[in-house]
Amino acid sequence: MYVGYSMGTTSFFVTMSERPEYNDKIISFVALAPAVYLSNIKLLAITVLKTLELPARMRSQGMISLTLRSDLLDLLIRNICFQNKPEDDICMRLVYMVVGEDLEQYDKELTSVILYRAQPVSWRQLEHFGKVAITGVFTSWEDGLWGAVKPYNLSNVKVPVALLYGKNDHLTDKSQIMRLAVKLNETGMLETVRPACDWEKFNHLDFVFARQVGTLLTKPLVDYIKTLFSKYGPP
User: Where are the transmembrane segments (predicted)?
Assistant: First the structure.
C-alpha cells in the first residue's frame, strides 16, 4: 500500500511510468492532493520562472537551492510571521493566495514547528513542476524547463488509485484532479475520486497542517486504507 501527498504522489506516478515493474510491489495507491496536472497555476509558474527568472537569478548568486539559514528562518518565524491573529499574519496571507484560505484550521504552533524543520528544495525540482504547469502536460524534466515536452506514460500505472482532493485546494485544483481521473479511468485503474473530507475550506496544506486533521482526514483515511487492503491485499 502506498499513500502519497502532493509531491509524494508525483514521485509515485513518475516511478510507475518509468519503472512499471514496481507495480508488482504495491497493491493500491491513495493519492492525497495529487500534483500531476497543474495548468491552473500556469500564470504563477510563468511569472516566477520566466518573468522574474527567480531560479536563474538565485543560481547566479551562488544559491543552488531554495533554503534559508537557520538564523534568518528564526527571524522570519518569530518576528514577521505567525502573529497572534491569523488574519494579521502576512506570511500565511501570501501562502493562502496559492493554496486556498482556511483560517479556521490554521494551527500556529504546529505550522511553526514544521517550518523550523524545513529542508532545502532544489530549484530544478521547482522548475520541473513549473514545466508541467506551463505546458499543461505531465512531462519529464529532460531537456530542461524550456526543452522538449516528453510526457510520462500514465498507462503504465497498473494498481488501483484513489484520488482525494481538498474542496478549497487552489494549488492542486479539483479540475486538474479530474483530468488525472479521466486518464486513470481509461486504463481501469481509477478506484475513486472524491473530496478528502466534508470541510468546505479544506486546502492544500490542511492535509498536513489542519488543526483538526485527525478528525477530518487521518482517522477516516486509516479506515479507508484498511478497506483497500482487505479488497486488494493478499488473501
Answer: 26-49
